[in-house]
Amino acid sequence: MSFTTTNNGEKTTKTTLHSVLLFNQPEAHLYIPSDISYLESKFTIEAWIYSTINFGTAIILAEGDNIFYLEDNQLKFQKKSSGETISSARDSIIPNTWNHVAVSKSGNKPGETQLYINGKQNDNQGVISKLSAGKGIYIGVHPSSAAHQSFQGKISEIRLWNIPRSQVDIEKDLHNRLVGNEPGLVGYWSLSENSGNTVYDKTQNAKNGNIYNAVWSESLIPLACSLDPKERLLNSNKIEDYAYLFSKLYESQAPKQNVFFRRGRIWH
Predict the structure, then answer these.
(1) pTM for the structure as a whole
(2) What does the angle CA 44 – CA 47 – CA 49 come to, to the nearest 5 degrees?
(3) 211-232 burial by CB neighbour count: b if 16+ within 10 A, else e?
């Protein structure tokens, strides 16, 4: 575990060993049963992904007729029935490293479906019309797609919102773990369980998922956290973190009044 202190000394950006879900078997996937279509109207999908392929199709998330995926390391979102596709326009996903990916949809016109890679908008302004309802979410596969289109690699921090999130919104939470009660958050699977065949939705919707062929693993992910001085002392291995701790302890001390002494002699 390692911590890096930001300039203001108040927050640590950490690359920490986290539990993740590893997709390394044929048709390995996570299925989240639900009677709600999350993607039927306005929405945002976010995830941290670590793809191990250099070409071909790799499905990140699918619901009904709609898929969020990689194709030859380009990030894409598609309405399969119509073939409407929006694609990243530059700076493709780099394999064998962690990337944050997102798709945000606010309407059915050009420019109202947006892709983000590591917090930066990156798309060709394609049109995605109104989406058809789907029930149940698949992570890593689409039930009607070929086995070789399954995702290969690691996934963490899957987030679904019933609002379109802006670049500012996405960047703000990019490196943070969420709580689960954030406004507009309707599904949050951090994939931090590290054991068992169930992943838990941390929102009040409690749409828990079932694991098929995927396995638990651990990986270093650039997630950040705010720590109080005591936590910094317990977890840190950086000298500057100890300096931060003692500066805070010094600030907490009440200022002492200056005491003046006069030299002289005592006679008896």
Answers:
(1) 0.80
(2) 145
(3) beebebeebebebbeebebeeb
